[in-house]
Amino acid sequence: MNKIIAIQGAEGSNHHKVARDFYGDNIELKECMSFDAIVAHLLEGSATDGVMAIENTIAGSIIPNYALIDSNNLHIVGEEYLNIHHHLMALPDQTINSINEVWSHPMALLQCKEFFKKHPHIKLVEDVDTAEVAKRIAKENIKGIAAIAPKIAAEIFGLQVLEDDIQTIKDNSTRFVIVQTQLPAHSIDGINKASLKFELSHKRGSLAAVLNVLSDCKMNLTKIQSLPVIETPWKYSFFVDVTFDEYTDYQKLVKIIEIMAEDFKILGTYKNGRK
Description:
With 275 residues, the protein is of the alpha/beta class. The chain has 3 domains: 3-83 and 172-180, Periplasmic binding protein-like II (D-Maltodextrin-Binding Protein, domain 2, 3-Layer(aba) Sandwich), CATH 3.40.190; 87-163, D-Maltodextrin-Binding Protein, domain 2; 193-269, ACT domain (Alpha-Beta Plaits, 2-Layer Sandwich). Helices cover 30% and strands 34% of the residues. The chain contains 9 helices and 15 strands. The chain has helices spanning 14-23, 35-44, 63-71, 106-111, 113-117, 130-140, 151-157, 206-216, 247-260; strands at residues 3-8, 27-32, 49-56, 60-61, 75-83, 87-90, 101-104, 123-126, 145-149, 160-163, 173-180, 193-199, 220-228, 236-243, 262-270. Strands 1, 2, 3, 4, 5 and 11 form a 6-stranded mixed β-sheet that branches. The longest helix is centred in the last third of the chain and has 14 residues, at 247-260. The protein is elongated and about 65 Å long.
């Protein structure tokens, strides 16, 4: 059975590229305009896997997605890191001088603001999704309008790239996680990263004690994120990512944290996607 992957955005989006990079071309897509919709497809069984952006080197953590993964008991089974490139594309046989408007997601427009200062004749129009705009331009044969989208969108929809890499900050990367509702039955071979969640009592040194245990168990802490516990004002959950060389060191850590922390949960164990 082919994988049915729920992605945020349309075909040709960065989420689509990540799904293709992780699973290959032989997949079926469920296009979602929100991360909540991804979760809904997973819970109702109309998708087998979901792709969710979780953090970006410019914007930081996408905090609501941590809560979605936790509250819906999703399991992280993998991750991908993607360098974000914004390309200006339109129907063939046009130049940038013939473009009157650019339609794209507000974040993409913001990240390309400096480029468009050089082209003041172009009106910037906010839209719902980068790839969906590219698809609409191609389907409706709209001339004089360009999209900002990943290059994969130009390849899929037959658009011409007018300008490459128009983003202001060139080194821009996003981390995506692959999530499922079922606990994966994979072996421990190649597993060298874990995502964990726990709560701590509000007393001096409680977090420091856990961090010391991570160090003692030879864990490399790659991410720590706190979120408020909604039901208990001024209490916080901690989401941490750790990498390790030996799986036995990770097993030792789990046994200790289960004793030290409250509401301990393993969100996923998987292969480190950082190249």
